[in-house]
Design a protein that fits this description.
By secondary structure, this protein is of the alpha/beta class. It has 12 helices and 20 strands. A hairpin with a 4-residue loop joins strand 7 and strand 8. The protein binds 5'-O-[hydroxy(phenylacetyl)phosphoryl]adenosine.
Length: 433
């Protein structure tokens, strides 16, 4: 089957505008009456729900940011009572506070629907055997990919991330046809495969849906060649629903946005002005069917461009280009979102080092690595080696406990880290993706 839901995926622009307008009007009413945060924001901007009559009016509405979610942690932006929420996920935020998202039963249904479209785009069907190697847990990757795979009737292998040898053994023995994981993990699997002497023609793998982190066209080519598959890019973020907000079709010419659920805009991140199709800028989404956590004009911080030309695959949805960067300093390390400020607050909390640090991110053997350089104080510099090593271990453990990432910590001599007169350079990203 080529489409999962042709009614919506191939809808005419006029019809889509009608659907979006009706859903937008309802969403605005719902947040105004159910979420004090939105009511206050709209009142401050002098807007009432009745002012929103068309898609053109969207730009009158104020933006929502990750900070707003943090300020209303954990449930303050939910538009339904907690008794209606059937699932909670979370993704990392600064200073240890997670961004918490909640789903009603209908939201889970919507999520499975958009993920079903994603798999269908990748050639998946009820005949597929889908290995879900995204992490299961608070991260939306695992369970999001899981329920979408069940929705299309595929046989799902909920293996989660890690244990690569076992992944490959299962892939071979269980006849996996479709792999869902981060692109860097896919490449790592390809490498392990070669090391273990498994040939790609011994596998039944046909396609992969890869996302949760930025990756380039050259990385796509490499994955496709080494695994002998079609590699589909899948985009999403927890705040909007999780994976499935947009995905490639087999033409791989921009990701189709599931516009009957999410309205995209591109803005200039500095002036916040809405930019025309084709311009590069920050992606903004408004959810128009979500019940638990509807978000109005959510600033994703992801840099992309929108294309409204009808695709050769027949889908009429607006497409987004591969994410080319971020308009903030968030890093994605092995699929975990990390803000330098989170690391800074762990260091400050421990308080035994100087307040100068540098994060060195690299990709070794197709896996991201993080090294943290922290300056010692003058006093400590003269300390014995054992005490320094103990502190390195302590910092490493704290970082792992708070952020869930494995980092190499190196205490360096005072004044090693370059000082800056303007914005401090905290990150050296050596990854070539
Ligand atoms: O990463 C959801 C997801 C899971 C998407 C599995 C795709 C596959 P968060 O943890 O909230 O959610 O992180 C969202 O990850 O704002 C982007 O910066 C980045 N991101 C997600 N998909 C892509 C992609 C999930 N295909 C943040 N390309 C987003 C580039 C991506 N960046």
């Amino acid at each position: 089957m080529q489409y999962w839901n042709p009614t919506y995926e191939c809808m005419s622009r006029d019809e889509m505008t009608r659907v979006q307008t009706e859903r937008l009007i309802n969403t605005v009413k719902r947040v105004y009456f159910n979420v004090p945060f939105y009511r206050n924001k709209m009142q401050q901007a002098g807007i009432e729900p009745g002012d929103i009559k068309s898609l053109e009016d969207l730009k009158k509405l104020p933006f929502t940011t990750k900070q707003d979610l943090r300020d209303n942690y954990p449930y303050g932006l939910f538009a339904v009572p907690l008794s209606e929420i059937v699932r909670i996920h979370a993704s990392s935020g600064t200073t240890g506070k997670q961004t918490v998202v909640g789903y009603t039963r209908k939201d889970l249904d919507t999520w499975a629907e958009v993920m079903a479209r994603t798999y269908t785009n990748a050639g998946g069907s009820k005949e597929s055997v889908i290995q879900v190697a995204y992490g299961y847990g608070l991260f939306t990757g695992g369970l999001g990919a899981h329920y979408g795979a069940e929705r299309i009737g595929a046989s799902v292998i909920p293996i989660s991330g890690g244990n690569t040898k076992r992944q490959l053994q299962i892939m071979k023995d269980f006849g996996t046809t479709l792999l869902a994981c981060t692109p860097s993990y896919a490449l790592f699997m390809a490498e392990e495969m070669e090391e273990l002497g498994i040939k790609k023609n011994e596998l039944k793998l046909r396609a992969g849906v890869f996302g949760a982190e930025p990756w380039s066209e050259s990385m796509r080519k490499e994955i496709e060649e080494r695994l002998g598959i079609l590699a589909i890019d899948i985009y999403g973020l927890s705040e909007i629903i999780g994976p499935g907000v947009a995905c490639d079709c087999y033409l791989k010419n921009g990701m189709h946005i599931q516009e009957d659920h999410f309205i995209p805009e591109i803005i200039d991140p500095e002036t916040q002005e809405v930019l025309p199709y084709g311009s590069k800028g920050e992606l903004v989404f408004t959810t128009i069917t979500k019940e638990g956590l509807p978000l109005i004009r959510y600033r994703t911080r992801d840099i992309s461009t929108l294309n409204n030309e009808v695709c050769g695959c027949g889908r009429t949805s607006v497409r987004m280009s591969k994410v080319s960067g971020r308009s903030d300093d968030m890093l994605i390390i092995r699929g975990v979102n990390v803000f330098p400020s989170q690391i800074e607050s762990v260091l400050l909390e421990i308080g035994e080092t100087a307040p100068h640090y540098l994060l060195i991110v690299d990709r070794v053997d197709n896996l991201d690595s993080l090294e943290i350089w922290v300056e010692m104080t003058q006093n400590m510099f003269s300390d014995e080696v054992k005490r320094i090593e103990d502190l390195e271990r302590h910092i490493k453990k704290e970082i792992e406990g708070t952020l869930g990432i494995n980092a190499k910590v190196k205490l360096v001599e005072p004044k090693t880290i370059e000082r800056s007169e303007g914005k401090a350079k905290r990150v050296i990203d050596k990854r070539k993706i």
